[in-house]
Amino acid sequence: MRVLFIELEMEREWSLASIGPAFLAAFVRKHGHDVLLHRSAYDESLEKTLAVVQSIQPDILALSLTTRQWLRARAVVKTIRQAINIPTIAGGLHPTFSPESTLGKFGFDYICLGEGETAFLDFLNIMEQKGYISPDEIPNIWVKGASRPSVRSPISSLNDLPFMARDMLREKHGVASMTTQRGCPFPCTYCAARMYNEMYGTTQYGRRRSINNVLAELQHLRQTGPLNYIIFQDDTFTIQPKWLREFLPQYKKEIHIPFSINARAETISPKMLDQLVDAGCKHIIYGVESGSERLRTDIMKRNVSNKHLYDVFRWSKERGVITTANYMLGMPTETPAEIEETLALHHQLQPHDFGYFVFYPYPGTPMYHYCKKHGYLPEDFEDIQANHRSSVLVNNTLTDEDIEEYYQRFTHIRKQGFLKQYGQYIDEAGRKELHRQIEYIAETG
């Protein structure tokens, strides 16, 4: 079967590609299926996307979707399906945790719940044989108009999966994305990662690849192209200290290439930072979320103190690690005074850079159910674009004007930080030009 994945960029052309299709492509290609990718730029017209599909003439149209991509995906699929009768399947976080809504929209014939490799292979094999999937024929595959299917157990060993298909990723200049695990043990109420455990009915959804398997992929990348920097995309790279204690010395010995990670302050100690830095860690992204301990502990279920956050950022910077903090504003029950606490904590932490995002209740998360139960969601919630600049909530503690004011304050602080560190602030147009110049240098030598 000839499969075309459409990757929908949102707002920025340099956004990271989804890694899901890279795993799926590698898996089904081993069984004779052809997988292609079209990365649809954020400003690409519907007519252009349709023309690309018509030129490729795939047998199957596939999308891996987050909630932020959902409204655009609806428009893209509608345009394509009005012109072409092509079976369409969607997977990823949004279809998994909002399946009825996804299948209820025009053009979506099937969705894949949860982990997709073996289910997608079964799907393609049967589609190749008879051209359609019967209800309940394939675990994890929900057929439009049918009842919810059963769900197969996750793949027991991630070592059994082939390495990601790198042509499905946006990787340039020797910067490679890596994952070493699936699943998350933490109960954050705003994140869907933990919800896979509940969907599968097990606490064992979390799995990590063997050290040798991770190193083998890195060696393969080094042998097949330039490898200058590694971004470990695991939600929390620093869980399982025993695995890290064994991995990091071997990584230093065999690979020894600079890398960045995502980490939770709760998992960090000075000793672990020493081990990370010794192996080549240059950059850590920490989820701080809020300066309000009440909000972080009671609402977000992030049990970490402001003091420990301060210590972790201090330890990191003392060791020369570049730090990025991520903040969230607009949570249910949050007050202006608590956003002021976040700003105050930021000035204490003094990270090298930071991200700031207005809360959005993603389907499947505890906070989504909380918002639904307590009347925070407007009636047209599913038709409002998910973004991180404005709130969709019907909120009685923060007004839209409050959100806008604080978003602009965060923006101003970030600009001032760039001016202080680098003498200038690079806006979106400047970033595009910088990337263009880097690509020109890389291509021409």
Question: What do you see in this structure?
Answer:
The chain has helices at residues 20-29, 46-56, 67-83, 93-97, 99-103, 117-130, 195-200, 211-224, 241-254, 270-279, 293-299, 306-318, 336-349, 366-373, 400-422, 428-444, and strands spanning 2-8, 34-40, 60-64, 88-91, 110-112, 141-143, 175-178, 181-182, 207-208, 229-232, 259-263, 281-289, 322-329, 353-358. It has 2 domains: 2-143, 3-Layer(aba) Sandwich (Rossmann fold), CATH 3.40.50.2300; 171-444, pyruvate-formate lyase- activating enzyme. The longest helix is centred in the C-terminal third of the chain and has 23 residues, at 400-422. Helix 1 (20-29) packs across helix 6 (117-130), helix 2 (46-56) crosses helix 3 (67-83) and helix 9 runs parallel beside helix 10 (270-279). The model is unreliable at 440-445 (pLDDT under 50). Strands 2-1-3-4-5-6 form a 6-stranded mixed β-sheet, with helices on both faces. It has 16 helices and 14 strands. It starts with a strand and ends with a helix. With 445 residues, it is of the alpha/beta class.
Q: What Rg do the Cα atoms give? A: 22 Å
Distance, first to last CA: 39 Å
Tell me the structural class: alpha/beta
**What is the CATH topology classification name of the largest domain?**
pyruvate-formate lyase- activating enzyme
What oligomeric assembly is this protein in? single chain
CATH homology-level superfamily of the largest domain: tm_1862 like domain
What fraction strand?
Answer: 15-25%
Q: H/E series, N to C?
A: EHEHEHEHHEHEEEHEHEHEHEHHEHEHHH
Number of domains: 2
> Mean pLDDT, as a whole number?
92
Count of helices? 16
- Can you summarize the main beta sheet? 6 strands, mixed
| Number of beta-strand segments | 14
The poorly predicted ranges are 440-445
Which CATH class of the largest domain? Alpha Beta
User: Which strand order does the major sheet show?
Assistant: 2-1-3-4-5-6
| DSSP helix fraction | 40-55%
Task: Please name the CATH architecture of the largest domain.
Answer: Alpha-Beta Horseshoe
**What general form does the structure show?**
globular
